[in-house]
């Protein structure tokens, strides 16, 4: 019993960045509403990554090492002016291939990268000769404010192949629309989860299937503390709302929808059970007002 207890105590240190549970790393769960990840994902091969940069957890990712893309990234939104930075180096996650090191994501080396890293995740060569697709962020840098938080989004464990016209068109416009909405009307912390669905299409390299190509891109935010005096067309989109779009050149409009509608779609298009829930208790926060005043909200 004593040995098991000690192993449990040291598990956070041994697990480093790739963890059995997001709560194993101090502050990692801060990226999740009520410290709770989306529930209902049933694939035991998925890896939980506490995305750590410069010795600090930045956000979390559920990663599929077989498809070599994230299933979702979850992060807290930071108010920004929306400018984008593109001079950060692209990084990879050493802990997907080995358990030593300090748990930080690392820039890709200029020389040879051992095959064991290519086996566990996407590498730059997977995207180098692809014309149709760009590296599309799930946690975008323009939703982060500090240089370190922005730099941490430039890891291939946070990106998926997105059709160029979709990435620079409807999806970028959506990210900007949400940035402005949360900047202006979210009074507290906003939590965002962004993910994908797939249908089996892959980017191939050296005659091998390498990186899954998303069929759909989806996202949802949770902001329990919002401006209740906001315009009605804005207020109906709080405390939580979702979006869904096709990762395609045409017919790729981003459709906003209530969270439950998005979850119903995902139950039919993701490897999840019927208990799927993106945010704990659907982002319903107890009202601080006494009961007799709650009708005024």
UniProtKB/TrEMBL annotation:
Instruction: Provide the ENPP1-3/EXOG-like endonuclease/phosphodiesterase domain boundaries.
Output: 56-279
Keywords, A to Z? Signal
Q: Which residues form the DNA/RNA non-specific endonuclease/pyrophosphatase/phosphodiesterase domain?
A: 55-272
The signal peptide, as residue positions, is: 1-16
Matching entries from InterPro entries are given as: DNA/RNA_non-sp_Endonuclease_sf, Endo_G_ENPP1-like_dom, ENDOD1, ENPP1-3/EXOG-like_nuc-like, His-Me_finger_sf
GO function term, MF aspect, one = hydrolase activity
Is Cytoplasm given among the entry's keywords? no
Q: Which SMART domains match?
A: Endonuclease_NS, NUC
Q: Which SUPFAM superfamilies does this chain map to? A: His-Me finger endonucleases
Q: Which Pfam families match?
A: Endonuclease_NS (PF01223)
Keyword RNA-binding attached: no
Q: Tell me what this protein is called.
A: Endonuclease domain-containing 1 protein-like
Q: What is the lineage of its organism?
A: Eukaryota, Metazoa, Chordata, Craniata, Vertebrata
